[in-house]
Amino acid sequence: AALAYAVVRVVGELRRLYAGQREAAAALARASKAKTDFLADASHELRTPLTVLRVNAEVGKQMDRDCEHGEILEEILQESDRMSRLVEDLLFLARSDSASLPMKAEVVSAEPFLAELAGRVQVLVRERGAEPHVEVLEGQERLRIDPGQIEQAVLILADNAAKYGTPGGTVSLSSFAGYGELCIEVADEGPGIPEEDLPHVFERFYRVDKARSRKQGGTGLGLPIAKTIVEAHGGRIEAESRAGEGTTMRICLPLVADLPSTPTGSHRQG
Ligand code: ADP
Question: Domain named Histidine kinase: which ranges (predicted)?
C-alpha cells in the first residue's frame, strides 16, 4: 500500500510539473509573439516619417541653388536611405520570426531559373563596379522554391562580394548539383574574412569592419536575411574564406526528386 501511495504521489508530481512546463512554454510563446509584433509595428510606423524626411531633403536640395548646404542634404538623403533599408530588413526578419513571411513556393526548372538569376547578378555586380563571371548549371534539375526569395538571397551574396571584394575585381557565380541538392556559389577575390569572424557573419548586426559596412550603406542584416530565406526552404548557407584569399558563399537547396516512371510510361510527378 505504501508503494502504491508513493507511485500515486510521484505520478501526481509529474503531472503538475508537466502542466507547469506547458504553462511556461505558452507564456514564453505569447511573450515572443508580442516582441515580434512590436518590432513589425515599429518598423511599419517608421516608414512614413522616413519618407517625409527623404522628400524634404530632396526639396531642400532643389531649393539650394548655390549648393550652400549640398553636403549636409546629401548626407541626410544617404542616411535616410540607409535607415529605410534597415527598417525594411527589420520588418522582414520580424515577419519571418513570427512565421508570417509569405512564401510562394513553386516547382521550377533549375536551368531557366539560374539563367535569369545570372542576368540579375551581372547587372548588380556591374553597377557596383566589379566584373561578373558567370557559369551556371545546365540540366534537368528541379527545385521547389519561392524564386523571388532565393533571388534576393543570392543577390545579397553578390552585393557583398562586390562591396567587400577587391575594387574592380571579379565576382563569380557558379552552380552545381549532386547528392540531392543544388548549390549556388558566389565567390570574390577580396581580402576575405578572418577566421575568428567567419562563424559569426550570419548573426544579426555582426560586421567585421563596422566603418566599411556603414560606408557601403550596409545594415548588418544582409547575411541573416539570406540565411533565414535559405533555411525556410530547407536548405543551408555556408561561408568559406581565408584572409587575403577571397570569400566563397554557398547556398544549397534540396532538389525535387523525380518519381521513377512506371512501365506504362505515365507522366512523372514531383
Ligand atoms: P552588411 O550590411 O554589413 O553588408 P551582411 O550581413 O551582409 O551585412 O554581412 C555581414 C558582414 O560580413 C559584413 O559587414 C562584412 O564585414 C562581412 N562580409 C560579408 N560578405 C563578405 C565578403 N564577400 N568578403 C568580406 N567580408 C564579407
Answer: 41-257
Ligand 1, from 88, 173, 201: best to mutate by most atoms within 8 Å of Cβ? 201
Task: Give distance in angstroms: CA of 156 to centre of ligand 1.
Answer: 9
Q: Are 69 and 7 within 8 A, CB to CB?
A: no
Cα 210 to ligand 1 centroid, rounded to whole Å: 9
CB 155 within 8 A of CB 120: yes
Q: What is the pTM of this model?
A: 0.83
Cell numbers representing residue 144 in the block: 521547389
Q: What is the ipTM of this complex?
A: 0.99
Which cell is 62 given?
Answer: 532643389
Which residue CA neighbors atom 7 of ligand 1 most closely?
Answer: 222
- pLDDT tens for each residue of 110-132: 999 999 999 999 999 999 999 99
Q: Which residues line ligand 1 (CB under 6 A)?
A: 156, 160-161, 164, 188, 190, 193, 201, 206-209, 213, 218-224, 247
The answer to whether residue 257 scores a pLDDT higher than 90 is: no
CA 196 to chain centre: 22
Exposure string of 210-239, with b = 16+ CB inside 10 Å and e = fewer, is: eeebeeeebbbbbbbbbbbbbebbebebeb
